């Protein structure tokens, strides 16, 4: 599913949609083992390690391009040697399939070097 999701596009979320349930979140996370659910499965996050600040910044910039193209934007925190991404669909107060689509794209970027 994660490979399939990597090729999908985020769809606009206009609210009024129920967030994914705990079981659905767990099923998606089984394919994204480095991401973890937080806030009662209303958000997912992952931390990446880098050798220095410049490399972390470059990765954040590349993720930013993907996020802008997808119209789905993570919360990002980064500094010397790390970048942390937090995903949630704010309009529904929880997780949507878009969050997992973007997570797979971030993972693919990390694995591509």
Describe the structure.
- With 113 residues, the protein is α+β, with helices and mostly antiparallel strands.
- It has one domain (2-8, 19-111): Transcriptional coactivator/pterin dehydratase (Gyrase A, domain 2), CATH 3.30.1360.20.
- The chain has four helices and four strands, in the order ααββαββα.
- The chain has a four-stranded antiparallel β-sheet with strand order 1-2-4-3.
- Strand 3 and strand 4 (82-87) form a beta hairpin.
- Helix 3 (53-70) crosses helix 4.
- The longest helix has 18 residues, at 53-70.
- It is globular.
- The two termini are 22 Å apart.
- 27% of the residues are buried.
- The model has no long low-confidence stretch (mean pLDDT 89).
Per DSSP, the total helix count is 4
Residues in helix, % = 40-55%
Query: How is the main sheet built?
Result: 4 strands, antiparallel
CATH topology: Gyrase A, domain 2
Q: Strand order, biggest sheet?
A: 1-2-4-3
Distance from N terminus to C terminus (CA atoms, Å) equals 22 Å
Query: What's the number of domains?
Result: 1
Average pLDDT, all residues: 89
Structural class: alpha+beta
Helix and strand string, N-terminal first? HHEEHEEH
Using the coordinates above, name the CATH class.
Alpha Beta
Percent strand: 15-25%
Task: Give the CATH superfamily.
Answer: Transcriptional coactivator/pterin dehydratase
């Amino acid at each position: 599913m994660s490979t399939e999701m990597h090729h999908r596009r985020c769809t606009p979320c206009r609210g009024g949609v129920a967030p994914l349930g705990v079981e659905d979140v767990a099923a998606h996370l089984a394919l994204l083992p480095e991401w973890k659910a937080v806030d009662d499965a209303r958000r997912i996050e992952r931390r990446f390690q880098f050798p220095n600040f410049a490399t972390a910044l470059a990765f954040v910039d590349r993720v930013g391009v993907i996020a802008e193209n997808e119209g789905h934007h993570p919360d990002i925190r980064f500094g010397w040697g790390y970048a942390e991404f937090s995903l949630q669909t704010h309009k529904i107060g929880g997780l949507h399939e878009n969050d997992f689509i973007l997570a797979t794209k971030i993972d693919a970027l990390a694995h591509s070097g």
